[in-house]
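Attaching the record inline, Q. Sequence:
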Amino acid sequence: MKMRRLIPVLLLWFLGVQAHASNLALVIGNQDYESLGTARGAAVVAAAGDALEDMGFRVFSGEGLSTEEIRAQLSGMHEDILRDGAERVVVVLAGHFGHSRSGGWFMGSEAEAQGLALADGQGLRLDIVLEIAALASDSAVIWLGDSDGAVALGNGLEAGLPQRLMVPQGVGVVRGRPDQVLDGLRQTLRPGTALSSVVDRNRNLSGEGAIPTLVPFLPEGYAPTARADQRAFAAAQETGTEEAYQAYLDTFPNGQNAQAARAALERIRNSPERLEDALMLTRAERRAIQNDLVVLGYDTRGIDGIFGPGTRGAITNWQRHNELPDTGYLTQDQIFQLARQGADRTLELEAEERARREAEERRDREYWAATGAVGDEAGLRRYLERYPEGIFAGLAGDRLEQIAAEAEEALRSRDLAAWRRARGRDDVAGYEAYLDDWPDGGFADVVRSRLRDLQTDSDGAWPPGRDNAAIRRARAQEQQLGLAEPTRLLIEQRLARLGFDPGPVDGVFDDQTREAIAGAQERFDLQPTGYVNQDLLTMLVSNLFREFFR
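Structure, as predicted:
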């Protein structure tokens, strides 16, 4: 199976430009069928496509096409007619045909004997072809080449063309064997030839519908080449590229628009854009150009080797400033000029930068002499605030670290001396004095631990500062109870339940726990010593049982 869509020279098929269409043709020859057998001679109509192209027709064509492929070719021609219009339409179909009382079909290469009910899936309805051809503004001719093969197409569908077709106004239909159809078409394409004269001379052809007797299909003096020349040049102008004009000249080297096409080519080839392209600048060279522009104060929106709108705008501004044609594209001489200016400006900037650095260094040294060189912490910090990256920043930082280390060492020495004094006294007052002066000192945790020991051992007393006989007896009574940790935890829990805050429920009786015990003793009319005795323990436990059985 072969299928093609050919766009003739007339319409610049090599340009890919869609020029205005005036003559369109559809040529399909289906000789080889998968199931129906060979349609003898149908392939000869392929030559009709060449004859039509020679006369300036845009041809849609194919051989051995399936039903879907036939429809696709017809659809392509239909789209062009709707988009561009068509003066003349020619359709040439050769192969197996089928018909019934309702109409006729041109069978696709995959057609089988499936009968009338499935005919639309096996072939293309001829009335659709006639309706599309009728869209031509001047004339339309349908050439039908029936192979006369006796093929079975199924129930309700007979082989061959119907005796008559419902032909729309302005459309002519000519039928015959494929070779006769080809011969008749060639005669009709001779300018000044009327379709009726061709049908009359060939008794093997029959016509119906619009078969003009006086008006030729192509007028006398019809010159497709001149019309193609004009349309091809118009298409090249619309595209406006070097390829478009060169394609026109390749086809019409001596055409009526050849001189204009060559002039247009010359303008394109000598355009600023083409001249710059001819330099074949590398990515690195483009970056160098962008760098020169930036050095000179023109914003390229990046130095990436890509000449986008930012770079083109920068080039244009530079050209205007230098009284050059502001094309936005560079010549070789302009690139050299830009490079010289960029190099000169770079030297100027480097000199300015050196002068700036020298002045800044002088100010740096002068400020160091007035601040950091003195060596005190305040002066060093003032220097670093102004010159964090200055010449003497490293030295200033080292000296500050040394000062901090010395201060830290002195602090540790005073802390150690205070600890030694407290340790020498080894009493509550001494340790509390240490914590007043050194709450976060290096020995604070040790001091607090020792304080707890002093406040809970036999030599200590609670509350702090009270160590009378009653307190000592209460402490001794608590020690005699031998309160285990579970019992201590239970006591703390009962105190908390009674509304007293014993602190963390951890089995350790600290000052806060003692306060809670004293509060409970007052509530139970006991002496508030802050130490647990048998009476308080009984009260707490009995109160627990009352809550349990309540």
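Residues 469-549 form one domain. The first strand starts at residue 2 and ends at 6.

More tomorrow.
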